[in-house]
Design brief:
Elements: H1 8-16, H2 26-46, H3 50-63, E1 64-71, E2 76-78, H4 80-92, E3 99-100, H5 105-120, H6 124-144, H7 148-153, H8 158-161, H9 163-174, H10 179-192, H11 206-226, H12 243-247, H13 254-258, E4 270-271, H14 282-295, E5 302-309, H15 311-317, H16 325-329, H17 332-340, H18 358-366, E6 367-371, E7 382-387, E8 392-396, H19 413-424, H20 431-440, H21 449-456
Parallel strand pairs: 5-6
Antiparallel strand pairs: 1-2, 3-4, 5-7, 7-8
């Protein structure tokens, strides 16, 4: 087949089946290691949450295997695909994992990579390469459908839909898939993929499970492909039943999917979260913090706040009433109230929510949301503050994807270490320092022994 006739998955397979660690730029390696550290830290905290415990309890009699892959922070071992399911759910259980790219790439790609890498006896460098492959392939798959805004506006959850292809890429890399099997793995993953935003209607726990399910799908797809099962090579392009047809109204963007393939590895398209809530709130939080610093805003001198955004953003971020951590994380008014009160918007502000505290409760009654369909989801919300002296301050928050933690306003490595140390503090002991060391030394690890030792022990919060 000529280069011009190759499908999207065949182009991606030709690139990644032959890529090694030595082909990766140093800045890409350093960046993805920060994402690995961040993902594993929040996953170890997530491993003890009720929803993860429920997934484990539901699966243990079917999935437990003494030769299986580590279920992080629990002492269990499951078959690799089911380990990816649980570990991806742990990573996303408190929505503090990375995002952007193809959704929550860390919680979809890394669980698949480590589950397969443990089974395959992979080196640290092989895992790093596989994780970069997953970030790149997942992002490019999403671009072929028109990007995040178009995909989300239709109700699809990118972490579920495109996360499956990213996870399949990582798993195929570690299984040593040749170009043909690699393309088959992506085709199989695309055949099985899914994930919709219906959970926002009632707070269903499927939101937390979507990344894990994507990881499970990716592992299964790669295993089947290496075993000889073929997947549709035209998984995107097929006029009837292809992803462009089913998920994007028949409009594909192959040029966006393949732009700078092998040059831009797209790790930088994913952000790290400084705040423990939906990314759609982050640019607004940054804007409030700037106004506090520049104009001295306080809860006492703000009479009311109007948040104006497009329909998708309002649907996503107006959950009310707040009854649990999920509701709080998808309430932009709650995030604005926390920011005005000077909170750092960490896990302690969301689990459990603090909406009953008098100062925050009073602010919530003064904050409203309005729809303006001229505002796109990537424009970010507009915030209008009416002060007690009668002055009105209006600011455009800007694209949430470009908020603090993105490539535009990146977190330093020290800030990533500080976040990991902070979220792991309730687990006690030296787990944070051991995890940081294992990830920082991953390039030189002939096996995954040190990293898996940190992840294998059961972790129970001490406070």
């Amino acid at each position: 087949m000529t280069a011009a006739a190759q499908t999207i998955t065949e182009h991606l397979a030709a690139q990644w089946a032959d890529t090694t660690y030595d082909d990766l730029p140093r800045d890409v390696v350093d960046a993805v290691k920060d994402h690995i550290l961040d993902t594993l830290a929040v996953a170890l905290v997530g491993a003890s949450t009720p929803e993860v415990t429920a997934v484990i309890d539901a699966s243990v009699s079917f999935s437990s295997s003494p030769t299986g892959s580590v279920v992080w922070g629990t002492g269990h071992r499951f078959t690799p695909a089911h380990a990816a399911l649980v570990n991806g759910t742990s990573a996303h259980a408190r929505d503090f994992d990375d995002g952007g790219g193809a959704g929550h790439a860390g919680s979809t790609v890394l669980p698949a990579a480590l589950a397969v890498g443990e089974h395959a006896g992979s080196t640290g460098r092989q895992v790093i390469t596989a994780v970069v492959a997953g970030y790149d392939v997942g992002y490019r798959a999403l671009q072929s459908l028109g990007g995040f805004a178009a995909h989300t506006d239709r109700g699809w959850h990118t972490s579920g839909t495109m996360g499956s292809l990213g996870a399949a890429a990582a798993a195929a890399s570690l299984l040593g898939a040749d170009r043909g099997a690699y393309a088959d793995a992506l085709g199989i993953a695309g055949s099985f993929t899914g994930g919709v935003w219906a959970f926002i209607d009632d707070g269903a726990l499927t939101k937390r499970i979507h990344p894990g399910k994507a990881g499970e799908t990716g592992v299964d797809a790669a295993v089947l492909a290496v075993g000889g099962i073929t997947g549709p090579r035209r998984i995107f392009e097929a006029e009837w039943g292809g992803l462009h047809s089913v998920l994007a109204d028949g409009i594909g963007h192959p040029e966006r999917a393949l732009r700078d393939l092998g040059v831009d590895f797209n790790v930088a398209t994913s952000y790290l979260k400084p705040y423990a809530c939906c990314r759609g709130s982050h640019s607004a939080v940054d804007a409030v913090r700037r106004l506090i610093a520049e104009r001295g805003l306080t809860p006492e001198n703000v009479r009311s706040v109007t948040i104006t955004a497009g329909t998708t953003a309002v649907n996503m971020l107006s959950v009310s009433p707040i009854e649990n951590v999920f509701d709080a994380q998808f309430s932009l008014p709650y995030a604005v109230a926390l920011a005005l009160c000077g909170s750092d918007l960490g896990l302690a502000d969301y689990d459990p929510p603090r909406h009953g505290e008098a100062r925050i409760a009073d602010l919530l009654t003064a904050i409203s949301m309005e729809v303006d369909d001229s505002i796109e989801i990537e424009d970010g919300p507009r915030l209008s503050f009416v002060l007690t002296d009668g002055e009105t301050i209006t600011v455009d928050a800007g694209n949430p994807t470009d908020a603090r933690g993105s490539a535009v306003r990146p977190l330093s490595h020290d800030e990533v270490v500080a976040k990991a140390t902070s979220v792991l503090r309730p687990l006690g002991g030296d787990i944070a320092s051991r995890l940081v060391a294992a990830v920082e030394n991953l390039d030189d690890a002939p096996y995954l022994t040190e990293l898996l030792a940190v992840l294998a022990a059961e972790r129970v919060p001490t406070s």
